[in-house]
Every structure is written in structure tokens, then in C-alpha cells.
């Protein structure tokens, strides 16, 4: 019986020591968790903290889009005379200046206009002399006022016809010496269509010989599908990206939205007018237009670059003091290109580390 009491006492003492030891270990672990990591001076100077803010939830929408010419800056050149192209001085895609020689063309109409000009010049000399004669006769009371008016009218008609002929010759920069019409650029821009080459037979009913577009400003036409119509509005800011420029983002805004649904493509068309002085956006180029969809629901938001994804979970590194850094598991609701919107596991105003937070996260993870 005495031995049993001693054994019970021994077992109780061992259990007491074990509990005491566990408590001590827990205490030490708690101390490590709380004070085992502090930001040193270098890290304090190299971190950035931002507060959690409550913001309307916004979600990115991508609109398939294409770059087009501004139709107000297009010039189509259609020949007013028939003939044969003898030489061209431009290529497709080339930039040209207003007044620059683009092509030369032989035409029978040039000979006709040149002959007509010579004939009119001769007729004007004759009409001028007749008018002078009638004026003298009218002064001597031999010719009537009517005769004087008719002589003056004949001279004016011939001069008008000569002026019209000269205008036609000047329109095509006619060179009588070379026997060709010289077609010059009516405006500055880029040749985007070329339907002519040396030897081409053209007529006054032909398609445009070439088209010049001023590409310093282009239109981006974006497709808005039915489900996104409520969220895309006029004057909304947009970001534009292109495969050709993976590191570039172009900023703009929606200038107008068509009020007519495109039955073939089943979309509404949104137009974005873009400055293109650097020439990067070319007609026919496919681009993505991104707009932010807002539904009016508020949620706590953190910068997207603060989010850490590890072991199929999301974490944020919260700053309370230099020696009180917390890694908190969070559940994203929605995220866009700049922010992540969170469930109620974080409070508005709490400080989040957004620079060097991954380094701190790995330090804290190693201490566990």
C-alpha cells in the first residue's frame, strides 16, 4: 500500500514536470513569434506601407478593338482625265508632303487643252482689237451702245474660257514641254492605298489612284458585347495594349458610343480618338481596350502587388510596429490590374507592406 502511494506520487510529479515543461516551451515559442523578428534599419528604409482603403469594387473588362483611319483625314485622288501612267514616284506606306510629285500621265486631253489654250489666246487678241475698234466708232457716234456691249461681252467670255482651261492645266500641273500631266500630293500624310503603276490605263471613271491618310490621329473602334453595355459609358478612361508593344500602355477615353446595334457582329461600337504622333498605332492593328466595370458595391482594397500567393492561399503582410509584423491570410473577392478587393478579414486603415513584403514573409515563415 505504501509502495502504491509512492508510485502515484511519482507519476503525479512527472506529469507536473511535463506540464511545466510544455508551458515553458509555449512561452518561449510565443516570445519568438512576437519578438523573434524586427525590422533592421536597412529594411525600415526600404519598405513602403499603404493603408487599406474602402473603394467601389471595379473589375477589368477587355474589349476587342481595331485601329482605323480617321475618315476626316482621308484624301482619295480620282483622275478627272483619261490617260496612261508613265511613271510613279511613291510606294505604298510612304509618307508624302503636300505638293510632292507622285506620278506623271500622258493624255490626249493634254493636247486638246493645250490647243484650246492657244486658240483662245489668239481669239482674245482678235476680240481685243475688235473692242478697241468699236470703242473708237462709238466715240465717233458710228457704233451703238449695244455694239460696244457685245464686243466687251465677247472678250469677257473668251477670257473666262481661257481661265477655265488654265485652271484645268494647273490642276494637273501640266507640262507642255514633256507632254504629261504631273499629279502632285493634295495633302501631307501616308499612302495607305495605291491602285496605280507605270503603264496603267486610267479613265475618269476609275477607282481612286491613291489614298492619303494623316495618321497623326487615329480611331480605335472597340466592340461592346451585350453583357457589357451597362458598364461602358462615354468619357470613361481606357487603357490600350497591343501585342506589337508588350511593354507599352496607351491611355485614352471613349469619345462616343454608337446607338445602333451591329446586327452582324452583335456588338455596339465605341470610338476612341487617339493621338498618334509617334506613329505606333497603325490602321488594321488589333488591340485590347480595357475599361473598369464598377457595380457600386464597396469593399476594402489593397494594391494588387501587395498580394502574396503561397500554397494555394493568399496573404498580406501587415505592419503594426517595427517588431510587430503580421502575416494574414485573406480571401480576394475581385481583383483588377491595380487592386484586390477583400473579404472582411482586414480592416480599413490597417497598414500593408507593398515593397520587400515577400522578403519579410519568407523571414517570418522560416521562424515558425
Describe the protein in words.
The chain is of the alpha+beta class. Among the domains are: 60-71 and 215-295, Beta Barrel (Elongation Factor Tu (Ef-tu), domain 3), CATH 2.40.30.170; 73-105 and 180-213, OB fold (Dihydrolipoamide Acetyltransferase, E2P) (Beta Barrel); 108-175, Helix Hairpins. It is built from five helices and 22 strands. It has helices at 2-35, 41-45, 108-139, 145-171, 357-367, and strands at 48-51, 53-69, 74-77, 83-88, 95-96, 101-106, 181-184, 189-194, 201-202, 210-213, 217-225, 237-242, 245-253, 256-257, 267-275, 286-303, 308-310, 313-321, 324-330, 332-335, 339-342, 351-355. Strands 2, 11, 12, 13, 14, 15, 16, 20 and 21 form a nine-stranded antiparallel beta sheet that branches. A hairpin with a 2-residue loop joins strand 17 (308-310) and strand 18 (313-321). Helix 3 packs antiparallel against helix 4. The longest helix has 34 residues, at 2-35. It is rod-shaped and about 125 Å long. The two termini are 48 Å apart.
Condensed summary:
It is built from five helices and 22 strands. With 368 residues, it is α+β, with helices and mostly antiparallel strands.
